[in-house]
Amino acid sequence: MGNRGMEDLIPLVNRMQDAFSAIGQNANLDLPQIAVVGGQSAGKSSVLENFVGKDFLPRGSGIVTRRPLVLQLINCPTEYAEFLHCKGKKFTDFDEVRQEIEAETDRVTGQNKGISPVPINLRVYSPNVLNLTLVDLPGMTKVAVGDQPADIEHQIRDMLMQFVTKDNCLLLAVSPANSDLANSDALKIAKEVDPQGLRTIGVITKLDLMDEGTDARDILENKLLPLRRGYIGVVNRSQKDIDGKKDINAAMAAERKFFLSHPSYRHLADRMGTPYLQKTLNQQLTNHIRDTLPGLRAKLQSQLLSIEKEVEEYKNFRPDDPSRKTKALLQMVQQFSVDFEKRIEGSGDQIDTDELSGGAKINRIFHERFPFELVKMEFDEKELRKEISYAIKNIHGIRTGLFTPDMAFETIVKRQIGKIKEPCQKCVDMVISELVNTVRQCTKKVKAFTSYPHINLKGWLTINNIGIMKGGAKEYWFVLTAESLSWYKDDEEKEKKYMLQVDNLKLRDVEKGFMSSKHIFALFNTEQRNVYKDYRQLELACETQEDVDGWKASFMRAGVYPERVVVDAGEENGSDSFMHSMDPQLERQVETIRNLVDSYMGIVNKTVRDLMPKTIMHLMISNTKEFINAELLAQLYSCGDQNTLMEESAEQAQRRDEMLRMYHALREALNIIGDISTTTISTSLPPPVDDSWLQVQRNLQ
């Protein structure tokens, strides 16, 4: 190589791969690397073993490589191997390396030949290798074997695509010479993800197994299916050689002899074989890293800036420092208080456009849900008149009363006022639910709360008229104002939208059909006129009861109220019905008290409708805000030992450690890149070739 700066590039990427793999970020950074792709039994494993000069990869039938193997080769005077998941352990016996790969693969994928995209990182130090990093990927297959899932082909393909679609990934496309190159699995992948051929390096294996009288000269001379980076031929050990434990060094000598003695390849011998392939990959990966340094530096800097503020808090972090715990708790409560205030008052910096929440949701409860719940209490006219009748008769006892008793009015009013308790309680419950939800959202936003699992604020704090509805099979937009109701189907009809006056309109519920899940109510005219065209009533359907309630509340604000049930004396049964029909004096008394109750309850309902939101605001919402601002911190301090309260979660401790490691890895990488980029030069990419075969075949797919 002769360029010390350039020689540092591959080890640099190795260090970054290790650092980012340890925290699960390797795939996101798109580091420069070489991915080895090919079909099963294409000879990928043998090529990699020839680089190392040792048998260390699992072998067998079917899918042998079931997890990506990130193989880092490092030139070093001593020979040994290390796994990232076995830090500090050096493997000098490469049979043990194979066993560890198999065991680690089974640990994640099981023993049923399943696959996993989680890589195994293996670093091999040896005086016989050049600095090089390769990712050995599972061989492509067509048929599931044993307990493998039926879609194993698609799983392998998806895994390959995670690597080979990255712009910074070179492709080492391994294809056997004794099969049709046009149908090579590796070249099919290359055609798809690298149609310009800028990232693909071709490797032809099994040249010694071709039929007699045939050769791959046109391919190796880059005349047939040419690639810009060309093809390199290699001769691996045969299965017989592997079973017989043939020494790899002897196999390399046999490979050299094959190319020198073969009439079709002897003129190419200096550009063929495993040593030349390793040297070429070293040069091309180094140059590729050099070419991608500007983009890599930009990504590193962007990632560094994104975590710098958080890391600044961790640099001098001492988990057991009492002052840190006090400060952290104070900051959390202050931030929580600000966020809660914003969500309730509606001045938040992050506006939710998907649904109502916080103060807006509570406002809807006050002005839509609660008024409608109150109105529903007035509907049962028949039951109310019966209660008045019984009250009057029970007060008179055995005598026939001449005057309307005041006590009947008081009794009925008390019962009616008692019924208001249920909608009031429901209103309180809905507001509490929304306050708890607001607390939950605030604690999610204040990330520090997730770091301290012993703090649970929910325990302390738990104490428009436009919409869309369906009519029949069509959807309409409805717009309701105080004067009219209008609707239209789509934007084209918006200008000619239908409209009707709300005067004399009332609401009534409609029973759901046997097969319908819709909630239906209807508009009708109290003067028995058609509501719209030939329709006596206009039925409207909603998906949920909550939507129906919201619409009814909107109609009531526009002056359209639910119908009142008028009692027909003929509907009464038994002796009471007979008495009602035969006692005009009792009927007059019932009507008098009914009118008094109606007037009085109208005043009560209006008062409750006005006072209930004010009371909830004062006793619940304002008190909650005051509690958060003035008492929450003291309550948290008094609930137990501060050290226990502010004990961070194991997940947060791990995250802090990983964040610091990533920060230092990014800083180191940027420093090394800064030194190298100003002192090194690289060779240019080989000149373009006729790659129309890549383009055409890709278009045919």
UniProtKB/TrEMBL annotation:
<dbReference type="GO" id="GO:0005737">
    <property type="term" value="C:cytoplasm"/>
</dbReference>
<dbReference type="Pfam" id="PF02212">
    <property type="entry name" value="GED"/>
</dbReference>
<dbReference type="InterPro" id="IPR019762">
    <property type="entry name" value="Dynamin_GTPase_CS"/>
</dbReference>
<dbReference type="GO" id="GO:0008017">
    <property type="term" value="F:microtubule binding"/>
</dbReference>
<dbReference type="InterPro" id="IPR020850">
    <property type="entry name" value="GED_dom"/>
</dbReference>
<dbReference type="Pfam" id="PF01031">
    <property type="entry name" value="Dynamin_M"/>
</dbReference>
<comment type="similarity">
    <text>Belongs to the TRAFAC class dynamin-like GTPase superfamily. Dynamin/Fzo/YdjA family.</text>
</comment>
<keyword id="KW-0547">Nucleotide-binding</keyword>
<dbReference type="InterPro" id="IPR001849">
    <property type="entry name" value="PH_domain"/>
</dbReference>
<dbReference type="Pfam" id="PF00350">
    <property type="entry name" value="Dynamin_N"/>
</dbReference>
<dbReference type="GO" id="GO:0005886">
    <property type="term" value="C:plasma membrane"/>
</dbReference>
<dbReference type="InterPro" id="IPR011993">
    <property type="entry name" value="PH-like_dom_sf"/>
</dbReference>
<keyword id="KW-0342">GTP-binding</keyword>
<dbReference type="GO" id="GO:0005525">
    <property type="term" value="F:GTP binding"/>
</dbReference>
<keyword id="KW-0493">Microtubule</keyword>
<keyword id="KW-0505">Motor protein</keyword>
<dbReference type="InterPro" id="IPR045063">
    <property type="entry name" value="Dynamin_N"/>
</dbReference>
<protein>
    <recommendedName>
        <fullName>dynamin GTPase</fullName>
        <ecNumber>3.6.5.5</ecNumber>
    </recommendedName>
</protein>
<dbReference type="GO" id="GO:0031623">
    <property type="term" value="P:receptor internalization"/>
</dbReference>
<dbReference type="InterPro" id="IPR030381">
    <property type="entry name" value="G_DYNAMIN_dom"/>
</dbReference>
<dbReference type="GO" id="GO:0098793">
    <property type="term" value="C:presynapse"/>
</dbReference>
<keyword id="KW-0378">Hydrolase</keyword>
<feature type="domain" description="Dynamin-type G">
    <location>
        <begin position="28"/>
        <end position="294"/>
    </location>
</feature>
<dbReference type="InterPro" id="IPR003130">
    <property type="entry name" value="GED"/>
</dbReference>
<keyword id="KW-0963">Cytoplasm</keyword>
<dbReference type="InterPro" id="IPR022812">
    <property type="entry name" value="Dynamin"/>
</dbReference>
<dbReference type="InterPro" id="IPR000375">
    <property type="entry name" value="Dynamin_stalk"/>
</dbReference>
<feature type="domain" description="PH">
    <location>
        <begin position="454"/>
        <end position="560"/>
    </location>
</feature>
<feature type="domain" description="GED">
    <location>
        <begin position="590"/>
        <end position="681"/>
    </location>
</feature>
<dbReference type="GO" id="GO:0005874">
    <property type="term" value="C:microtubule"/>
</dbReference>
<dbReference type="GO" id="GO:0003924">
    <property type="term" value="F:GTPase activity"/>
</dbReference>
<dbReference type="Pfam" id="PF00169">
    <property type="entry name" value="PH"/>
</dbReference>
<dbReference type="InterPro" id="IPR027417">
    <property type="entry name" value="P-loop_NTPase"/>
</dbReference>
<keyword id="KW-0254">Endocytosis</keyword>
<dbReference type="GO" id="GO:0016185">
    <property type="term" value="P:synaptic vesicle budding from presynaptic endocytic zone membrane"/>
</dbReference>
<dbReference type="InterPro" id="IPR001401">
    <property type="entry name" value="Dynamin_GTPase"/>
</dbReference>
